[in-house]
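Onboarding guide, step 5: your first structure request.
Type a short instruction followed by the sequence, for example:

Predict the 3D structure of this protein.
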Amino acid sequence: MEYVLLILGFILLIKGADCFVDGSASVAHKLKVSSMVIGLTVVAMGTSAPECAVSIAASFRGDNAVAISNAIGSNIFNLLIVCGVCSVISPLQVKASTLKKEFPISILAVVAFVGMGYLGMEIGRADGLLLLAGFLVFLAWLVRGAKKDRDAQEDAEEIKTLSTGMCLVYIVIGLAAIVFGGDIVVDAATKIAENFGLSQTLIGLTIVAMGTSLPELVTSIVAAKKGEADMAIGNVIGSCIFNILLVLGIAGTISPMEVLMENMADAVILIGMSIVTWIFAWSGKRISRTEGAVMVAVYAVYMGYICMR
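The system replies with structure tokens like these:
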């Protein structure tokens, strides 16, 4: 039954992502804003729902280590696997404005987390509120940029899109299928792993972190295959920013979180991998298939490191 549920979950993820991307792309065209903005907001927030749910639930339970490791682990997965796999399928074009603005913000968000964690070895309520304030500033900056983007495209050629009602239907049904499918995959994969005798700790660090990032992976792959590279890269960067500023901000505000040395090590690894990916993207303003393959290989090495520590 677990294997049947695993297949069903993946079907829901793929079909849900297909609807979600079509609906989101239509919204972008209707509002005359770029797919990058939609990827950084609607798509990123939607696909980050599992991480948000898991981390907030963990914070209410007082299981703060899970909240932090889930957010950091998901970001590493998003960066290396989601970007890497998408680039292997089709080289990801990255705009210069993204490299100069959104990408550095995603790195600075992790640096801020490391700084807060290092100072007191915890993310207290004041730290959580600061992270949430940073998220609100980022959101306001995006809205301001979207308005400018829309004004610049007022005279752009109208593109045939879905009706407003159908856009909403596609987005809601697609997102529901993504979240529900992701839950099914995580639950089924966890039971299969337990049957093979894997420890709960290892399952949490691998399957749960990967499982909550499946929406980003499937949505970005579908977006890349549909020629929406901006939405794919925007989804990854936006999710990384939301996981640190919004998810950890809410979790820290609910319940102060102790920061373990393992969390600090993972966060430093995330910063390093973010900088390497940023450098990859600067070369030719894209992430090539070779660079994507290197990123996937680096994640495999990271998984080996996690299993051995």
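Each response can be followed by summary notes, for example: The longest helix spans residues 164-195.
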